[in-house]
Specification:
With 72 residues, the protein is mainly beta. The chain has one domain. It has no helices and 5 strands. The chain has a 5-stranded antiparallel β-sheet, with no helix packed on it.
């Protein structure tokens, strides 16, 4: 089963989502929307980081919802 890792850095104000192995990171690309894409050696995106992230919840809690769709 694939694992997704979500990291909320409250000090740095970032939200990082890994859907690949972080150890495979080879290069990063920043988009115009203040999102950084982390890629492996083959150019496949294995993670992303949202800059200047502030949670909607005033307590700073992060809720994650998982939706799995099976089929075509």
């Amino acid at each position: 089963m694939e694992r997704i890792k979500v990291i909320h850095d409250t000090v740095g104000g970032t939200l990082t989502v890994w859907f690949g192995n972080p150890a495979d990171e080879f290069v990063c690309e920043e988009t115009n929307e203040e999102v950084v894409l982390m890629k492996d050696r083959s150019g496949r995106t294995i993670g992303l980081e949202i800059l200047h992230y502030k949670p909607v919840n005033p307590e700073g809690e992060l809720a994650v919802e998982a939706v799995v769709r099976v089929g075509s």
